[in-house]
From TrEMBL, chain A:
The gene is gb07291. This is Glutathione S-transferase. The keyword Transport does not apply. It catalyses: RX + glutathione = an S-substituted glutathione + a halide anion + H(+). It comes from the Eukaryota.
TrEMBL record, chain B:
Is involved in the conjugation of reduced glutathione to a wide number of exogenous and endogenous hydrophobic electrophiles. Its EC number is 2.5.1.18. InterPro entries: Glutathione-S-Trfase_C-like (IPR010987), Glutathione-S-Trfase_C_sf (IPR036282), Glutathione_S-Trfase (IPR040079), Glutathione_S-Trfase_N (IPR004045), GST_C_Tau (IPR045074), Omega/Tau-like (IPR045073), Thioredoxin-like_sf (IPR036249). It is an enzyme of class 2 (transferase). The lineage of its organism: Eukaryota, Viridiplantae, Streptophyta, Embryophyta, Tracheophyta. This is Glutathione S-transferase. The keyword Transferase applies. One of its GO terms (biological process) is glutathione metabolic process. The keyword Transferase applies. PANTHER family: GLUTATHIONE S-TRANSFERASE, GST, SUPERFAMILY, GST DOMAIN CONTAINING (PTHR11260), OS10G0530500 PROTEIN (PTHR11260:SF476). It is found in: Cytoplasm, Cytosol.
């Protein structure tokens, strides 16, 4: 008799990477246990499940750990299939390649630029990060037009891979707006993404998973304080 | 049935372009190889990869795919009936392969490049330290993935073999240039043996560039960099 499938997600509430995995699991309608980690005091389970990076998110499926958010989302998509179960990636190989390209762009270009706005120690570096973020979001605005083909989401009528990758960052886009007044997505500069962001927030999965922006704000302030403290002690 | 037209935009020194060539070679696919001049990028490259303007780009029947790992997965999926299957069939093994593939580019390659390209000695030293950590992890990955067989993919070459295999010629060139052997026999005996084994395969030999030519190329680039630094 096969062992009962048992899913555990190790994450932190405000991690965009954990939010993406969370939402994928909700979309698939699978049951799982969520364990909120304290990254300043990592659990034995986290460290032993992800010895290479010692970071969240980690999905543990029947004792087998899977790490790296985009790898986990693809795993969830490939493992949980069947009649009535929504797909996260499209079926066509070319469309899959395009979806993977833009999700990688969000992770490798957009996210580091955006995170840099609050994390870099100097004003000069911050200005550079703002420029990079602007350029990246402009490209994503164009990508949305091409990918959505006039529909509500990057994936069409319902959310998919790229929607998850970018959508899980919306809470931090809002946090950056509160922290430094910068509007990364706005009705004037990126009208399509602004409308998409509202629709994303209204989906059942987002409503279930995404925490209040206030939580991210508290976390963001702590990160920024740590960066300033490090910069100050370095210059002494 | 229309015949497939495959065009690969790359450079002979790019390990990322080589990664795609290896995939095409192991799958037994024909393609047109277009050598780009990165100091004078072609219109074809700029229009087909406007986001990054980088090689490699695979153009399949006029439609472009960019980013080497994405291209390799595309080749495997679009040509699933041709040649061997590169990614494992089991979803968990696929996840493991993708995890390590991401690690190769984000950690192993990144720290190795820093160890000889870093601007200051301390940057280079840090790069070397991180490279040694990464190699240790990769050696463990090989052990876990191969399960005693000759390749990451088991009995035959798979996704991870191709992902790491594109570094082989530069690994040999790096040893001649800097005296540092990335997959050294003492530190990483499994990877050391795997490297020789992979490099001896016909499908690999067909596309792997000559390490001595890479050494000449690297020396030429170093001389150019030194010349422009002294002119400033």
């Amino acid at each position: 008799m096969a062992a009962k499938e048992y899913l555990k997600l190790l994450g932190i509430d405000v991690s965009p990477f954990a939010i993406g995995v969370h939402m994928a699991l909700v979309m698939k309608g699978v049951n799982y246990e969520y364990i909120a980690e304290d990254l300043s005091n990592k659990s034995e389970l986290l460290v032993s499940s992800n010895p290479v990076h010692k970071n969240v998110p980690v999905l543990i499926h029947s004792g087998n750990p899977i790490c790296e958010s985009l790898v986990i989302v693809q795993y969830v998509d490939e493992f949980f299939t069947g009649a009535g179960v929504p797909s996260i990636l499209p079926a066509d190989p070319y469309e899959r390649a395009i979806a993977r390209f833009w999700a990688a762009y969000v992770d490798d270009k957009f996210f580091p630029a955006m995170a840099g706005i609050v994390l870099v120690p100097t004003e000069q570096k911050r200005v550079q990060k703002v420029k990079e973020t602007s350029a990246a979001i402009e490209l994503l605005e164009e990508a949305f037009t091409v990918c959505s083909k006039g529909k509500a989401f990057f994936s069409g009528d319902s959310i998919g891979y790229v929607d998850l990758a970018l959508g899980s960052l919306l809470i931090w886009i809002e946090t950056i707006r509160r922290m430094c007044g910068l509007e990364i997505i706005s009705a004037s500069k990126t009208p399509r993404l602004a409308a998409w962001a509202e629709r994303f927030g209204e989906t059942a999965a987002a409503k279930k998973v995404v925490p209040e922006a206030d939580q991210a704000l508290q976390y963001g302030k702590k990160l920024q304080a740590a960066v300033s403290a490090a910069a100050t002690s370095k210059s002494k | 049935m229309a015949s497939d037209e495959l065009k690969l935009l790359g450079t002979w020194t790019s390990p990322f372009a080589l990664r795609v060539q290896l995939a095409l070679s192991f799958k037994g696919l024909s393609y047109e190889n277009v050598e780009e001049d990165l100091k004078n990028k072609s219109e074809l490259l700029l229009t087909n990869n406007p986001a990054h303007k980088k090689v490699p780009v695979l153009i399949h029947n006029g439609k472009p795919v960019s980013e080497s790992q994405i291209i390799v997965q595309y080749i495997d999926e679009a040509f699933s009936g041709t040649g061997p299957t590169l990614l494992p069939t089991d979803p968990y093994e696929r996840a493991i392969a993708r995890f390590w593939a991401a690690y190769v580019d984000d950690k192993l390659l990144a720290s190795w490049l820093q160890s000889f390209r870093g601007k200051r000695e301390e940057e280079k030293a840090e790069g070397l330290k991180q490279t040694l950590v990464a190699v240790e992890h990769m050696e463990g990955a090989f052990k876990d993935c191969s399960k005693g067989k000759p390749f990451f993919g088991g009995d035959s070459v798979g996704y991870l073999d191709i992902t790491v295999g594109c570094l082989i010629s530069w690994a040999h060139a790096g040893e001649k240039l800097y005296g540092f052997k990335i997959f050294d026999a003492d530190r990483s005996p499994l990877l050391n043996a795997w490297m020789e084994r992979f490099g001896a395969l016909d499908a690999a030999k067909k596309v792997l560039p000559d390490a001595d030519k890479l050494v000449e190329y690297a020396k030429m680039r170093q001389a150019e960099a030194a010349a422009s630094a002294s002119n400033n």
